[in-house]
């Protein structure tokens, strides 16, 4: 198809603003999915996405739409013309911002979707900032759309004013839709054709028959077909059977199949300039394909395009198999997940008590939870997951090393040194943006104080608290990443009755006043429960962790202690009584000494069990200890 009849766009929004529902209506109107196959969240193919009602992985889809515009002087538009609309549905949660940045590189336009009942949220600002960046073919077009206009709670005029202020646009540019009823969706498709620019081909390669430049924006792995790369064709054409090359890795391969997404993979004869589709590579080795690489032809290689920002893990956790024999399966499973989610990292490590496992880096707590849940469901693995942590830079004192200072990055709380060996500790801070109704400002200030946050101020020394329309305020704060991960999201939602939202980005490293807290079960340290906490909160954290574990741990055959240890001493303790059995229940008479002998024998057995017995901690206890608020 001619380039002028192709439109590539994405939907970006804060979480739960209706992206997937709007995409469903687009698929219905364009007849991309048959009516009998329609379901809610068509593009959310992962079971976890459907359960939680959120988008985790971006999903491209190709739609064909015949316009109903009246004849226009523009050669690009007219009554009855057929267009190819390539949509990439993106996640909305702050943990998956990297997915959004990848999708944006492949399109010329973006629908900025804003919920009419909630208005502009913090993550809306983050995704908007990414969308305003330059695309591959110039400035990206942003179409403001207000959703859920059928809701009785809709505040259409107020949210419209927020959008005008945010984008500095004409009020007439804003479109209004309902993903539930379909109202305004057909007009939105017409406006996409009208406003989003058609793809442009590089004139340098326009007349070269053997030229190809295809940008990889995602990929997945198939056991039978190997790595399948998702590409945006920028120049040239690719057909099945052609010999191709990854420009960065230098790996050669043959295109076993090319096709598009409808939304399932549909084979086609070729993909040409401006189109979005996939190429089956047949490669089954990890580390060959990478997001941001360029696919080109082996006989006429073209230099690679500029790539993407590299994802930076912010949360670390160690993952160990419950059964040491499952180590090889865990390694294989992580490798397969890496082929479908390039934003997490892992490397092998070993622990004296937990055995061999992997230290994994994630983009946030939700990302960590999703990956561990997929390991459990898709590969049937029973895992031990350590308490999530962040990176600390520790400078040891000279006496700890026999003279001379040494710096080291600590990824796991279990390896965090004792206080006596530390000279200085540095931790990462984040720059955050919070938007909430002004009546909750006092409550929010309290939780900011509890989480060691600092309000940003201007050059005149005044605190930055901006009015954000409809009686809402925007706060700019800096806080330790450690505190952001300590249940801050849930506390913000709770204290603002669900109306508060937050987005953040990494900032500088600062000196930290922290220590290691160990949890002992039956006098043995459980490395998975160790964590690094603020020295001011050590006693509170120890008490809450011990109480939580006491409530989660099944009763054992013998009495045991659960203890919290820091600063070289026990600071919290609870005793769990063992299960009891009436060993004299079968006796109905006789001398009392017979019963006394049996009870004494039971007592000795319990004592021996306490000395030699080991506590078996179920997998779900590790998962629940990892989560806050359970």
TrEMBL record:
Entry-linked SUPFAM superfamilies: EF-G C-terminal domain-like, P-loop containing nucleoside triphosphate hydrolases, Translation proteins
Tr-type G domain: residues covered: 4-200
One of the record's GO cellular component terms: plasma membrane
Location of the protein in the cell: Cell membrane
GO MF annotation terms: GTP binding; GTPase activity; ribosome binding; translation elongation factor activity
PROSITE patterns: G_TR_1, G_TR_2
Protein name from the UniProt record: Elongation factor 4
Topology within the bilayer: Peripheral membrane protein
Keywords assigned by UniProt, alphabetized: Cell membrane, Elongation factor, GTP-binding, Hydrolase, Membrane, Nucleotide-binding, Protein biosynthesis
Lineage: Bacteria, Candidatus Nomuraibacteriota
GO biological process, one term: positive regulation of translation
Protein family: Belongs to the TRAFAC class translation factor GTPase superfamily. Classic translation factor GTPase family. LepA subfamily.
Organism, scientific name: Candidatus Nomurabacteria bacterium RIFCSPHIGHO2_01_FULL_39_10
Keyword Endoplasmic reticulum: no
Role played: Required for accurate and efficient protein synthesis under certain stress conditions. May act as a fidelity factor of the translation reaction, by catalyzing a one-codon backward translocation of tRNAs on improperly translocated ribosomes. Back-translocation proceeds from a post-translocation (POST) complex to a pre-translocation (PRE) complex, thus giving elongation factor G a second chance to translocate the tRNAs correctly. Binds to ribosomes in a GTP-dependent manner.
The keyword Cell membrane belongs to this UniProt entry's keyword annotation: yes
Positions bound to GTP: 16-21, 147-150
Reactions listed under catalytic activity: GTP + H2O = GDP + phosphate + H(+)
Enzyme Commission number(s) from the entry: 3.6.5.n1
Pfam families assigned to the protein according to its UniProt record, in alphabetical order: EFG_C, GTP_EFTU, GTP_EFTU_D2, LepA_C
